[in-house]
Amino acid sequence: MNHEALRLYEYHVWANEKVFQRLQEVPEGVSEQEVPSVFPTITQTLAHILKTDYVWLWL
Q1: 18-42 core/surface letters (b: 16 or more CB in 10 A; e: else)
Q2: Engineered SS bond to 39: which of 6, 11, 44, 55, CB 3.0-4.6 Å?
Q3: Alpha-carbon dihedral sign for residues 27, 31, 32, 34
Q4: What does the pLDDT read at residue 57?
Q5: How far is residue 3's CA from residue 40's CA, in Å, rounded to a whole number?
Q6: Sign of CA pseudo-dihedral 50, 55, 8, 2
Q7: For residue 11, how far is the Cα from the chain centroid?
Q8: What is the DSSP letter of 23?
Q9: Could you tell me the pTM of the whole model?
Q10: How far apart are CA 8 and CA 38, in angstroms?
């Protein structure tokens, strides 16, 4: 793996860890509450991230 690819992978891991840490702070039920944003809920935002990861990492 070239150095740039490794650096990007390490950033990806770091960023996901930060997201998971913050999600642990979210009270139960809040992830489905609608908010004025690009994606109406936290769950829909996470689904978008997962789908994007799938496209970039496995296709």
Answers
A1: eeeeeeeeeeeeeeeeeeeeeeeeb
A2: 44
A3: positive
A4: 82
A5: 37
A6: positive
A7: 12
A8: H
A9: 0.78
A10: 25
pLDDT of residue 1: 59
Indicate the burial class of 5 (C-beta count within 10 angstroms; 0-12, 13-18, 19 or more).
Answer: exposed
pLDDT grade for 56, boundaries at 50, 70 and 90: confident
Q: Who's near 51: CB < 8 A, 6+ residues apart? A: none
Q: CB count, 10 Å around CB of 49?
A: 14
Lookup: tokens for 18: 């930060």
